[in-house]
Records
---
Amino acid sequence: MPDSAQPLSERLDALEIRIAYQDETIETLNATITAQWQQIDALTRQIKAFHDRLQQAESNAPAAPANERPPHY
């Protein structure tokens, strides 16, 4: 291989290595984002379930008279 082609070959190798690392990083980030979205979805469902339970508990709670003084008065 001529001397003038050596730097080009080295540059090409460096670019290929760099792309390989970038591909690995992209895959890792994609997996992380996917896991985070799954966790967000699960937490959103959990919050909705808690909200529904709270609404149900509030609707089943006995209504307090509006003008009644608290017992400590």
Note: The radius of gyration is 31 Å.
---
Amino acid sequence: MEKYLYVQGFCKEIHYTGLYPVAYRKGEQDNLYKKTHMSCACLDGACGSKETCDLLKDAPEVIDPEKEWRLRERMKGTKE
């Protein structure tokens, strides 16, 4: 299951400061959430730096089990 951590920062693609979602997936063996990619919808999926974004680099690699409460089930502004 994919969950999201929102990080605050400056997006170089749209030149805007805001909260941007970093996607995390739970590992099967170690049961920890590890970051996978940026999940921004700001350019309708046309962002060229989803894997190399500075915000992605600044986000924690692994979310500790005590901090899992910070992760969101779905992206803000999306319907289930």
Note: Residues 32 and 64 are 7 Å apart (CA to CA).
